[in-house]
Amino acid sequence: EAAAAAGGGGGNLVFFQSPRGGGGSGGSSGSSSREDSVSAAAAVVQVQQRRHQQGKVTVKYDRKELRKRLVLEEWIVEQLGQLYGCEEEEMPDVEIDIDDLLDAANEEERALKLQETLVDCYKPTEEFIKELLTRIRGMRKLSPPQKKSI
């Protein structure tokens, strides 16, 4: 307020635009500038803490595995759309659980699970099943994140 009274309306613009106190009049502007710097530093610390907290969530999962999984799931949806000849919204209730497939003992068991899932598809599914089994080879099952003990 003292800076505004001494410097007029223009002092307010400089005061609010520059937390470093590049302009303004009187000693009170300098102390307000320090307060602004402190609050700006506190805001930076809060943003860094928020980023750190967000990082904790993604660290629990392997990002590379998540990316692979997402790409695979998008491919599956696209392929099912072609097999059933419709858009995703119109597709019959077909659920392909990648983790369930990865739990299977061998390729034959995985192929059987997929054939059972796609039993009502009128188009040939052999190529889709073969390609899907190739794509999941080497993938790991995604385990849920570990709960932190308090």
From TrEMBL:
Keywords: Acetylation, Phosphoprotein, Protein phosphatase inhibitor. PANTHER family: PROTEIN PHOSPHATASE 1 INHIBITOR POTENTIATED BY PROTEIN KINASE C, PROTEIN PHOSPHATASE 1 REGULATORY SUBUNIT 14C. The gene is Ppp1r14c. Residues 1-42 are annotated as: Disordered. This is PP14C phosphatase. Residues 1-12, 20-29 have a biased composition (Gly residues). InterPro entries: CPI-17 (IPR008025), CPI-17_sf (IPR036658). It holds the Pfam family PP1_inhibitor. Belongs to the PP1 inhibitor family. SUPFAM superfamilies: Myosin phosphatase inhibitor 17kDa protein, CPI-17. The keyword Translocase does not apply. One of its GO terms (molecular function) is protein serine/threonine phosphatase inhibitor activity. GO terms for cellular component: cytoplasm.
